[in-house]
Backbone:
């Protein structure tokens, strides 16, 4: 019985870590869009030098900030809003610099964050 338990523990740890992994899909942006130049993993300064300053930006905490002893790179997110183009979303953590995790093309983007009521 002990041998079975010893074999089960590493499997359980691997499955737990796999469940916690975050899959970041590739951006679905048409090649004709200026947002197509932005790649997953780019930093804030890279994006600003490539796209220019955003029309507006918003930074907020994700629910992962409430997990004790969690130091992952996705505790905070920052959205850059570009009028008529869409949004670029960055994730950051206490030991991780902000990096692009999502590019959202939206031609009807007003360029300013509006809180949903």
Residues:
């Amino acid at each position: 019985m002990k041998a079975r338990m010893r074999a089960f523990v590493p499997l359980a740890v691997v499955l737990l870590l796999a469940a916690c992994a975050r899959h970041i899909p590739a951006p679905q942006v048409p090649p004709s869009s200026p947002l197509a130049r932005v790649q997953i993993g780019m930093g804030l300064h890279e994006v600003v030098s490539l796209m220019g300053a955003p029309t507006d930006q918003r930074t907020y905490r994700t629910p992962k900030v409430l997990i004790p002893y969690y130091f992952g790179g996705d505790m905070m997110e920052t959205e850059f809003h570009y009028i008529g183009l869409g949004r670029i979303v960055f994730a950051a953590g206490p030991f991780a610099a902000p990096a692009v995790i999502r590019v959202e093309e939206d031609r009807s983007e007003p360029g300013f964050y509006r809180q949903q009521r």
Observations:
- The first strand starts at residue 56 and ends at 61.
- The first helix runs from residue 2 to 20.
- DSSP finds two helices and four strands in the chain.
